[in-house]
């Protein structure tokens, strides 16, 4: 029998007190991300950001990006590890934003769950906060919603949005790309947060458990699959300050060729040399396990390249050296050709 002081909302499955405890637990994480432009604290109806600081721009352009993490959340839930999935969320947001040259200013998040467990929410938000620090963005606000009956008790999903700013005449875009430009690849940390429906299908069909030790990974399958998405935003912004960058391409769902073609003009095409890098073991293991074709995996996963910069030849040495100094492996992976169509061709074989 319900306690006399149990509210009707609680009896319906929504625990307001748990929500309040969750807010208390995540205050420290959110505080670590605070930029000087942020006004007020956590708990208001809206996050506030002092726009007067944007007056230093001659022609400020705001940029925004919205995304989620997809079915990678199923891996986190199965392993009961929730501290990294928020990192993936921010990576998907800010690394899309920086493609046009925008600096991320702030992030907001949305977490929907079947049952609100304060410690679990705090773990998710701690990952979001860690990544916001790496991106130089404030975690300005968010929402946690309890959906009993719609989601299973231990299920949740995460989504978010980010806003950034770029000077109008410094915006990157396809119109800047020229024949003879060079493609510089930046290493991925693994699968990032794309193609997990295929990953989960392959693993399930093979009967592999997430706690299976995989020699090629040097750790368990689950640990490899939860490797957080690399945050490129500050590296890319440093690159645009140090040398000329025509455009950037964030390699997400659809693979390298599809995402790179999105930032090429119709008047040009590009060639990517597979021999310029060796993809991490996770890609070959999953390809073999699922008996997938090269075309299948290259159209789904990033194959070890998370971001590509298109640069004039004279900027390449500076770019590769700068990224290496920031701990980000980078290499020349291809070129832009004076061939109409806006297509990207992958040639040769991986090392």
UniProtKB/TrEMBL annotation:
For this protein, the Enzyme Commission number is 6.3.3.1
Pathway given for this chain reads: Purine metabolism; IMP biosynthesis via de novo pathway; 5-amino-1-(5-phospho-D-ribosyl)imidazole from N(2)-formyl-N(1)-(5-phospho-D-ribosyl)glycinamide: step 2/2
* Transmembrane as UniProt keyword: no
BP GO terms, sorted: 'de novo' IMP biosynthetic process; adenine biosynthetic process
InterPro entries (alphabetical) = PurM-like_C_dom (IPR010918), PurM-like_C_sf (IPR036676), PurM-like_N (IPR016188), PurM-like_N_sf (IPR036921), PurM_cligase (IPR004733)
Q: Where in the cell is it found?
A: Cytoplasm
Q: Which GO terms describe its molecular function?
A: ATP binding; phosphoribosylamine-glycine ligase activity; phosphoribosylformylglycinamidine cyclo-ligase activity
Reaction equation(s) it catalyzes: 2-formamido-N(1)-(5-O-phospho-beta-D-ribosyl)acetamidine + ATP = 5-amino-1-(5-phospho-beta-D-ribosyl)imidazole + ADP + phosphate + H(+)
Q: Where is the PurM-like N-terminal domain?
A: 60-166
NCBIfam families the record matches: purM (TIGR00878)
Q: What is the protein name given in its UniProt record?
A: Phosphoribosylformylglycinamidine cyclo-ligase
The species is Auraticoccus cholistanensis
Gene name linked to the record: purM
């Amino acid at each position: 029998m319900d306690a006399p002081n149990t509210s009707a909302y609680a009896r319906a499955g929504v625990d307001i007190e748990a929500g309040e405890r969750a807010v208390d637990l995540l205050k420290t994480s959110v505080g670590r991300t605070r930029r000087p432009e942020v006004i007020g604290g956590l708990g208001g109806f809206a996050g506030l950001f002092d726009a007067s600081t944007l007056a230093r721009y001659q022609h400020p352009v705001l940029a925004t990006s919205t995304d989620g993490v997809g079915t990678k959340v199923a891996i986190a839930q199965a392993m009961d590890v929730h501290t990294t999935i928020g990192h993936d969320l921010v990576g998907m947001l800010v690394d899309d934003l920086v493609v046009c040259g925008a600096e991320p200013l702030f992030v907001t998040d949305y977490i929907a769950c079947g049952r609100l467990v304060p410690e679990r929410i705090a773990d998710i938000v701690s990952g979001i906060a860690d990544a916001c620090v790496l991106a130089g963005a404030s975690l300005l606000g968010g929402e946690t919603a309890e959906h009993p009956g719609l989601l299973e008790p231990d299920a949740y999903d995460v989504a978010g949005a980010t806003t950034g700013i770029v000077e109008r005449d410094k915006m990157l875009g396809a119109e800047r790309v020229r024949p003879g430009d060079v493609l510089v690849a930046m290493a991925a940390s693994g699968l990032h947060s794309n193609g997990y429906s295929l990953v989960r299908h392959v693993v399930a069909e093979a009967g592999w458990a997430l706690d299976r030790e995989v020699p090629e990974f040097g750790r368990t399958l689950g640990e490899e699959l939860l490797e957080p998405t690399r945050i490129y935003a500050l590296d890319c912004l440093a690159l645009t300050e140090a040398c000329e960058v025509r455009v950037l391409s964030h390699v997400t769902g659809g693979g390298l060729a599809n995402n790179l073609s999105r930032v090429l003009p119709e008047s040009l095409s590009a060639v990517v040399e597979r021999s310029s890098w060796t993809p991490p073991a996770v890609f070959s293991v999953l390809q073999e396990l699922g008996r997938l074709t090269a075309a299948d995996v290259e159209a789904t996963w990033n194959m070890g390249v998370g971001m590509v910069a298109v640069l004039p030849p004279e900027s390449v040495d500076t770019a590769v050296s700068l990224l290496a100094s920031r701990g980000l492996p980078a290499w020349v992976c291809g070129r832009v050709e004076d061939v109409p169509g806006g297509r990207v061709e992958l040639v040769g074989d991986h090392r």
